[in-house]
Structure formats: C-alpha cells, structure tokens
Amino acid sequence: MKIGHKKLRELYSAFFKSLDHAEVPPSPLVPKDDPTTLFTGSGMQQFVPNLLGVPHPLGVRLFDIQPCVRVQDIEEVGDNRHDTFFEMMGNWSLGDYFKKEQLRNFFTFLTDEKIGLGIDPNRLYVTVFEGNDQAPRDDESIEVWKALFDEVGIKAEVGDRIRMYPASKNWWSRAGEPEKMPAGEPGGPDSEVFYKFDGEHDSAFGDECHQNCDCGLFLEIGNSVFMMYKKVSNGTFEELPKTNVDFGGGLERLLAAAQNDPDIFNTDVFSTIVKAVEKATNHSYDVDENKPALRIITDHIKTAVFMIKHGVTPSNKEQGYVLRRLLRRALVKMSALNEQYSIDSLEPIIYEVLQTYDDIYLDAKKDLKTILPVVMDEVAKFQRTLERGLKELDKLTSVDAKQAFNLYQSYGFPFEITQELLEEKGIHLSQEDYDKEFATHKEKSRSSADLKFKGGLADKSEQTVKYHTATHLIHQALFDVMDDSIRQEGSNITADRLRFDFYSARKPSEEEMKKVETIVNTRVNDALPVAFKIMPKEEAQKLGARSFFKEKYPDQVKVYFIGANENSIKDAYSKEFCGGPHVTNTSDIGTIEIERFKKIGSNMYRIYAK
To answer: Alpha-carbon distance 218 to 199, whole Å?
Structure first.
C-alpha cells in the first residue's frame, strides 16, 4: 500500500507500543555533551550506556524515531537513496528478547497488512554475519529467517534469499568493523533486510546480483544489531553482561519500499520540496540528467533547515562549517542549473521543508521567521563572490593546491566544492596537497589575532597560555596513572579555566584524579623547561610524541616537549604535536586544581581545572 510519512510514524508507534515498548524522546540533532561527534548520526547514541549494562529509566523495551545527520557520505548524495538528513526508526531490547523475537517482530511489521506496511514478502531478502576469528557465524538468525519465510510459503535458501557476509557488511558498532573499535565500545553481528525492486541487473556491477550489489535493485531497509560484545584493551572481545537488540530502519527507505519506488525523493518527505526546487531552478525532475543536482539542492537545504533549528549558524569550524558547506554547495548547483535564479526563490523551498515536518519537529510559521534570515544572510554573502569565483575557476585549465586555496581565501569556495567542480572537468585535486597548503598558510599566519590554536584556546592571554601548557601535563599524567587506552578527545581553554576531554577504557576513580593533580603540580614545581622543535611527522611519531587523533597533520609538524633540551627530546616528560603557544617553563603555570571531573559519554570523561 502507498503510505505517507505521517501514517508510517503512526503504524510504527502503535506496533511497538502493542509489544510493551516505551517511546523514548529523540536526542538533540547536535549532541549536548559528546565531544566525539558533531551531529547525532544514529538512534543508538543515547543508549550506549544502557547497551553496556546501565538500566534505562523507561525499562528494557524501548523505541524511538531519531532525526540524524551524516555527512560522511555527502559525495553519494545525488543518487536515489542517499541523504544527509534522515530519520532512523529504532527499537531496543536491553537484556530482554533477542534474535528470534526481534526478527519476527520486524518481519511482521513489514508484511502484515493490518498492523504493518503490507509489503509482499517475496520482495524481501536478508543477510547475516558469516563469522570470523572473534565471533561465530550467526546460525541462529539463519534458522529464524528460514522459518519466517517458510510460514509465508517461501523456501529461503542460504546463498540466495539469505546471504552471509563478512564483518565489513554484517557487523555494527559506532566505529565500524571489529578492528576499528576502540576499547570499551559495544558491537556485534547484525542481520539486514533488503527490498528488491523490479528491473534488470546491470552487469557493470558484477556478474551476479545480490543483496549488497550496487546496481540499485536492492535497498537496505532495516538492520537488527545483536549487541553481544565489548572490545577490551588487549584487542579481544568479551561478552556483555546481557544480550541486547539495537534495531535501526531508515524512515525514508521504508517509505520507498512501501511504495515500491526506489527513489526516496519521490516520497512525501521530499516530493513537495523537490517541486519548489524545480520552480527555483526552472528544471524538471522528470528529466534524468537534472535529478542529481535537484536532489543535492533538496537534501542540502532540508538539512540546513534542521541544523539552524538546532542552533547551528554558518561559520568556519565544526557544525557551522558543515552548514556553510551544505548551503554553498546547494547554491553552486542552483547556479549551474539556472544562472538567472533569484535568492528569493529559496524561501518557498525552506517553507516546504517546514511544512513537511510541521507539528512533528518544526513549527512552520514560527520557525520561518528565525531560520530564513540565517539562510538568506549566508547566501547573500556567498552570492556576492560566487559568480566571480566560478568565472575564475572556469579560466583555469589546471588547478593545483595553491590555486584551490586561493579560491577559498578570495571567494569563499570550500575545497570540497572546488574539488567537485574540477572532477566534472576530469581534473583531480588531492586533499592531502590542499591540507599541506592550508597548514603552510596557518604557520605563516600564526601571529594573526584570529589564529585558532589546536588546543582550543579562546584567546592568547597569559593565563590561557599557562592553561594550555597545563593540558599537556594533564594528558601525560593520565597516562602515568591510568593505562594506554587514554585518548585526548578535545580541550577548551579560557582565561577562567581549562577543560580537558578524554577517552578511557575504564572510569578513573577520585583517588586517581587526585594522583593526576599531584603529578601535574610536582612537574610544575620541578620547573621543567618547555620548548618545541619542527620535525618530520614520522620522526616525531617514532619518538613517541602524542597527537590529537581527530587532527590531520602535515608532513612537517611542531612538537612541544616538556622536561628536556632540544638534543634529548626522547627523554622529555611530555611530547605532543601542537601549534602552541606555551610558557617557557612549567614554574610559570602555578598550582593547578582539578575542580570537577565527570562522565560525558560512553567511556568519555571531562576534567575542569583552574
């Protein structure tokens, strides 16, 4: 049956409530206290402590519909199934039911005509984990699926309707497959359900069509993750105290399957927005060659609306940079389709986004007044330079990293947009080369007042510099007291206090925090010299210099070392990649007191000190 997104929400909610599941409010789109991610990218993020054994106040059976943003696959947007803003419909069992019940529940929701979507089971195909050295093949799920298909008169054979895949396809954790998981991270094998559309297999994607084929016949519509394991510090896995179910199914993809239409942009969470984009660009969605650009514009403006609703404003860092990139990329695509378009035509597009989600996440009338000015201001800024930038880019027959950086400086063109436009001309521009050029520029500009130091300093006052050096001492002291699982996750320093975020495989005790404080103050009283040396990155790594794992570093790096001279860096107490600035001696720092210490996420902790 053809259903809309509001009906799908009603069916999903009623189905799981009938199975005694409590509805959990969705998390904010911008995580409140999670320094590890810019946006909520999955429904399970808020449940990580519960999957590890912490009781949930609403019980052991839960469900929600979680708005998400993922920009890792932004280059895929433009096809018929990828989007940066999406909704994940999820359900959880925390040590209650497991594989047999979960797979039956989802199969029933998909196929039942009265309480579910009424999808023809002949169109459903599934995958399971084939097993590896760390976890066995999921034979239980195979047997459950065979029985479920048999009940509707379908003989499900392994290798056809049921396919086994390795961990790269059928294992889930926030970090990915097992070897990528940090210590303390939960994960496990999963079983995915695919919907098969009509059509012929494209042999360009291989001789055989199968569930994970990229030809477009199969669409993944749901993933039941069996959270059974936790990664430990030695790289192996231990079983969780209780077995859990973590299910996620994309609302947009479930709508596409329910309508037997492989294009999510034909569903009613996109269709009216697409019409507004057609009008703004004077290009029809019925013409295949127009579809990629129209999808990108539709998706990016929708995502921008939700980001602004959640307090993000365009900037050159973190969430603000993502928002700026989305708006500017949409604008470049609009300009390419229609050079004469008016920026006023953006208002109807934004209004259709608000109308689509009115009374669900948005208030169409109220939010238009706050969201529209943010979009229009950013678009107006970029519009003034867009035409000149495109003309400049068009003149160039080849573009190197320096020219790409100049386009960014002069015209505000994000590297990704320049790279994309050049790819259309058959010109490849290396991200690595661009990063080197950017790093060179930062080094030359280090005396500029608006230089953003890697340590997260609010300014360059004497006190913030002292605190910045103190974070290096804290970082090393944590290794001294804890173990090698310690990983810096970020810092924020003002003249009033320092904040240091870190990952640890286990929770530090109050006694251990006192030890960290004692070590730091001992090193301060030791009056250790602080200096730096610029050296090849590989050499610095061999010396054991610590780095911020989120940061990309050029081939030449600046390493600050505490407690040694330039000729004996290897013996320094602290060695870290850092752009500075720092005191010249630890005695300049003064006494440091750890005022507060708290947990901010799964194995994530925050120190406040003065």
So the answer is: 10
Whole-angstrom distance, CA of residue 11 vs CA of residue 292: 32
Q: 364-395 vs 291-309: helix axis angle to the nearest 10?
A: 130
Put simply, whether the predicted model's pTM sits higher than 0.70 gets the answer: no
Please give the CATH number for the structural domain made up of 5-265.
3.30.930.10
Of the pLDDT bands very low, low, confident and very high (cuts 50, 70, 90), residue 460 is low
Q: Please report the pLDDT score of residue 30 as a whole number.
A: 84
Rounded Cα–Cα distance for residues 489 and 509 (Å): 19
Amino acid at 575: K
If one counts every other C-beta atom within 10 angstroms of the C-beta of residue 347, the result is 16
Q: Apex CA 303: angle with CA 297 and CA 304, to 5°? A: 85
Mean pLDDT of 252-261: 96
For the beta sheet containing 487-493, the strands, ordered from the edge strand earlier in sequence to the opposite edge, are 487-493, 498-503, 604-609, 594-601
Give me the residue spans of the domains in the chain. Answer: 5-265, 270-392, 396-444, 462-609
| Type of residue numbered 88 | M
- Residue 496: alpha-carbon gap to chain centroid: 31
CA distance 500 to 170: 35
**C-alpha to C-alpha distances, 415 to 210, 329, 434, nearest whole angstrom:** 36, 11, 8
Instruction: Please check the confidence at residue 454 and state whether its pLDDT lies above 50.
Output: no
User: Would you say residue 484 has pLDDT above 60?
Assistant: yes
Is it the case that residue 9 has pLDDT exceeding 90? yes
> Helices 318-337 and 415-424, interaxial angle, to 10°?
30
The predicted model gives 326-355 an average pLDDT of 89
Tell whether domain 462-609 is in CATH 3.30.980.10: yes
Rounded Cα distance between 406 and 408, Å, is: 5
CA 152 vs. chain centroid, Å, equals 38
